[in-house]
Amino acid sequence: MKLTLIVIGKTTDRHLRTLIDDYLARLTHYVPFTLEVIPELRVTKSQSAEQQKVMEAELIRKQLQPGDYLVLLDEHGTERRSVDFAAWLEKRMAVGARRMVFLVGGPYGFADDIHALAKEKISLSQMTFSHQLIRLLFVEQLYRAQTILRGEPYHHE
Fold it and tell me: What is the mean pLDDT of residues 79-95?
């Protein structure tokens, strides 16, 4: 199974970009993984948050493929400890969709139709993090999950 993380907008902080790239390089030793960036929308003051979510949803749907297992990174999703996330990931990967897609939404979250397409929702924390930082946190957790599944010494309990 291929894993994909779709995000809206480039990672602008060069320090975060360096760290993300490091974990991406590590991660690809374990599993096919891609990071896809949807260009950020040019939003005017006259557009509501709901209008922005609908416009982002159009761009997101273009990135999705038939048969994708879509997982939203959403504050209202299920929280898991790292070892539980690793077990969940292993189980999902064994079930057999060709591609599991994790999605970070825009600043206002997801449009209703994107919520409807999602198979699951995951929360990384009850705290709120910037969309830039969540990318780093998530790719690190994917890497950590792979090392947990292989019994490697990266994760300590």
Answer: 95
